[in-house]
Prior knowledge:
Helices cover 41% and strands 19% of the residues. The protein is an alpha/beta fold. A hairpin with a 5-residue loop joins strand 7 (129-132) and strand 8 (138-142). Helix 1 runs parallel beside helix 2 and helix 7 (186-196) runs parallel beside helix 9 (223-240). Belongs to the glycosyltransferase 2 family.
Amino acid sequence: MTELNNKLNISVLMSVYDGDKPNWFDEALHSILVEQSPGQLVLVIDGTISEKLENIISKYYNVNPDVLNVIRLDRNKGLAHALNVGLRYCNYELVARMDADDISYPTRLKTQQSYFLKDTDLDILGSPAIDIDANGASVGLRGVPISHQEIYKLMWTCPLIHPSVMFKKDKILAAGGYSEKLKRRQDYELWFRCAELGYRFKNAEETLIKYRITEDTHKRNNLSVAWSQYKIGLSGVSSLGLGVKARLGVAFPVIKALLPTPLRKLLIHVSNVFDPRGRKNA
């Protein structure tokens, strides 16, 4: 690793907790700190973590102490709390989200910054993603709607991939940040609030991240999570005045969660053909 020069005026916001896998976390940090040049990476350590994770953080901090800003929380209070804390430490107007198990393409930050420079009214920008499995192999393209109008109309589908998003810090703070009342799907609820406030959305045309989907991903999306998502979706489509299709569509995660994992995966595969976001299988 070498010292980064020509840093971008962008903060990257990440959280890591003890359940994150060290090798995936290492890949995630490498994709941001070695292959790109952010002005700052705010890394929130959400509670006590393993020695392996600590060693990975030390490796990158020792090379880039001026970029990597490590924030330690005494105990794990969940992703929403960690992100809200970290957001306050972000020094730049533009903040890029990143998860501890995903991979950013080398062009991601510069590409997203260029969209904001071209469109000063833009508030929140995501991108398509390549889904990868536990071994990093590609399993499909996760498509997304591009324009603000399409995203607004399809807000019920969660048309923004959270770890692909770059946003204006002040706008997210003004919206109230991530809801700490929710254990999952905090981003889904946040986008509805931002849409209601009139924020401008867009997705880049370029694919900018690799998004990890594993067996654990399917297992975590249980009935409790699906029911929470349904309630968020139903409230959101009502607040935005979306139509009958949206009101019916938000129930899909509940139907999916009622199935055993093998059938759930099959249903996801079949439903991708009809996904209004444009998802394609490999």
